[in-house]
Design brief:
Elements (H helix, E strand, L loop, with lengths): L1 E5 L7 E5 L9 E10 L2 H8 L10 E2 L5 E6 L11 E4 L2 E2 L5 H4 L10 E2 L11 E5 L3 E3 L6 H5 L4 H10 L9 E4 L5 H12 L3 E6 L2 H10 L3 E4 L5 H8 L5 E6 L3 H9 L1 E9 L12 H6 L3 E4 L5 H12 L7 E6 L3 H8 L7 E5 L6
Bound molecules: zinc ion.
């Protein structure tokens, strides 16, 4: 089969080559991959990979949707079934798995990180890692959902649920998770503010559902957010930018507000500002990925057309290098989709 294989670190080390088809272990199912997308973690895997146990060569790609081509006779899946891969191969035995919190599984092995992923014509994973796709959801739309949209869903509604009428600030609108947060927060009835790096992106964020925003290259974020909220500050900040935005994010919160982090693209060690944290009684928590249940809920929203993912650009598997470049382009807004099997509908 054809696959994008990381043979060595860096852009030059990722090559689209022919490799043997995956060999299915008992209990696993093989999916013919139709669509996928790119996520920040793919760049991290390509260029760094530190702290994630794996060996090279490895097939990259966390996101994947397609159809089942092979599974055990007793599997609940069937050949031809349209599915989304839940990329975390969870153990189903640890305390976290037993409580339905698969993203915290202590034995988790993620496709495209710890084991072969979806930038390939076929991928094999345990059959309990495949979720049925709603009939009217295209492969292309479904292929951009798994990492970004499920992550966004858990950030907004997982630990401390965003309520209708609440205000939320989404930092760095443009990235896949941030755009997903705008759409999902709006759908939930929240009032959505964003920070962006240009007026063009701000227009796109408003088209995606944001109510208002701040261009952080020309304005102080917290001053503008306080102005927009009559001096109060927002209930929740979603920040995946890290060091560069952290201080302004904390200053944009209302007393007793909460900040959720799911990434640190500009660095992971901002000042903790503990006095601000305790005096204003702020709450900080982290989030990554989503549970099976959260993925199902997200699929249901997408299937009923309550949310339509924002796709920035489309590439084929052969164009994987260009797709990675687009992912890092400053004007990107939304997901970079990858057509793997030639069928996107
Ligand atoms: Zn587990």
């Amino acid at each position: 089969m054809k696959a994008a294989v990381l043979e060595a670190r860096g852009a030059e080390g990722l090559k689209v080559i022919d490799v043997p088809d995956p060999v299915r272990a008992p209990g696993e199912a093989v999916m013919k991959v139709h669509a996928s997308s790119l996520n920040r973690v793919d760049i991290y895997m390509r260029d760094v990979g530190q702290g994630i146990s794996h060996a090279l060569p490895i097939i990259l790609g966390v996101d994947g949707v397609g159809e089942i081509v092979e599974c055990d006779r007793e599997s609940p899946l069937r050949a031809g079934q349209r599915v989304m891969l839940f990329a975390t191969n969870f153990c189903r035995r640890c305390d976290y798995c037993l409580s339905g919190d698969q993203p915290l599984c202590i034995h988790a092995r993620i496709a495209g990180e710890h084991r072969n992923g979806c930038y390939a014509e076929y991928v094999s994973m345990p059959d309990y890692c495949f979720l049925s796709l709603p009939d009217n959801l295209s492969y292309e739309h479904a292929g951009v959902l798994p990492a970004a949209y499920v992550t966004a869903y858990r950030m907004l509604f997982g630990k401390r649920c965003l309520e209708p009428g609440e205000t939320v600030l989404v930092v760095g609108a443009g990235g896949g998770v941030a755009v997903a947060c705008i759409q999902l927060a709006k759908l939930a009835g929240a009032h959505v503010f964003v920070t962006t790096s240009s007026s063009e992106k701000l227009k796109k964020a408003i088209a995606a559902g944001a109510d208002d925003g701040v261009d952080y290259t020309s304005e102080a974020v917290s001053a503008r957010i306080l102005e927009l909220t009559a001096g109060r500050g927002v209930d929740m900040v979603v920040d995946s930018v890290g060091e560069a935005s952290w201080s302004e994010s904390l200053r944009s919160l209302r007393r007793g507000g909460r900040i959720v982090t799911c990434g640190a693209t500009t660095g992971g060690n901002p000042s903790a500002e503990l006095q601000r944290m305790f005096i204003r009684q702020l709450e900080l928590y982290g989030s990554t990925g989503g549970s099976l249940n959260e993925a199902r809920k997200l699929l249901s929203l997408a299937g009923s057309r309550e949310i339509e993912p924002v796709i920035d650009s489309r590439f084929s598997l052969d164009e994987i290098g260009a797709a990675f470049e687009r992912l890092q382009a400053p004007d990107r807004f939304g997901k970079v989709a990858l057509c793997v099997g030639g069928q996107t509908g």
